[in-house]
Amino acid sequence: MRTILISYSAQGFDLLRGVCERAGHTPVAYLHARSLRPGGPTRSGAGDVVGRIVDALPDGTDLLIPGRKGMLPHIVEGYRADLIVCYGFPWKLPPTVLGATRLGAINVHTSMLPKYRGPLPVNWAIRNGDKEIGVSIHWMESEFDSGGILAQESGIALGDDVVPGPLWEEVDGYIERLLPLALARAEAGAPGTPQDEGAATYAGWMEPEFARIDWSAAREKIHHQVRAFRFGSSGRSGPVAVVADHRLEVLRTSLQPADGIRVMCGDGPVWITESVAVPDSGS
Fold first, then answer.
1. DSSP labels for 233-280?
2. Where do the domains of the chain lie, and which CATH numbers do they carry?
């Protein structure tokens, strides 16, 4: 099959390309989004990401970086591709794009669909205190992450301190194992297993209030809030809290007695084991 690959990084493209080629398929173009929304502002650091993608771009492969969706159906149609393979794309692709290849489009999603549809499934799993996540590969439809499931497997553990690098390495291993099966089923025209709409949940962008700690909340909720914030920001910052009239960025907490600051929550104590002071707004 001739495939068009969609991803968020040079590493993501390399992963998809390697799996496709080993399965006997030919990637003919890469598609990457520089903005979170069509027509939106370019993301901070997007130039560096694009540079890394270009540096690793195989000879003879086009890189498409659209600013809007209007021309995408015509561009995709021009490649006469059989299938779109997507892993990490913030835009909702319209039916005209999904139908611009012979078979349609499949997507890699890091949750056990229909749980956690949307852009931040891992962050929400951590926020909700889930013990593990999985990987689902499904047909793309007009609604986010809603199509029939072609391959799916759980078992990726979420420890108390989830480190992005090792987690994504494990996710990549799942993709390398599941994607060949999904590609074979897609090529055969399998519709996939329908998702249970009644069990669907959505993992959207975190609300602004998520960046502040409310000590009246349950202790486990606060602990998972700090864990999810740390994972999403690669450990560089945390939610802001007021402790003894001082503003702190809370980087790490413990539900068990530990060296640090003991703070009472709505249903018991939590220990702040790592934090940094937040300067006064006037300083």
1. TTTS---EEEETTEEEEEEEEESS--SSEEEEETTEEEEEEEEEEPPP
2. 2-199 (3.40.50.170), 208-277 (3.10.25.10)
